[in-house]
Here is the input.
Amino acid sequence: DYLLERLAPLPSARTFSAGDPAAYGLAAPELEFELERGGGAVTTVAVGNRDLEGSLRYVSVPGRDSVEMISAQIVDDLMGLVAGAG
Here is the structure.
């Protein structure tokens, strides 16, 4: 429940024009996941590199011309959840 509360809505610390996805680790993302909202709408989120300080991660949604930065802790929590399920 804690993780779901943090993911919805997914809080963005910064948004900017995408440019070259490889520069953010998004050409070959470390993680991709899908969020399903009420009504069945599904959004795929690609997770790339950490920022220089390590506290934020670059993320993108296919079809959008922007890159967003979200808390790295949220991604770490999600990755821990997935690892625990395997």
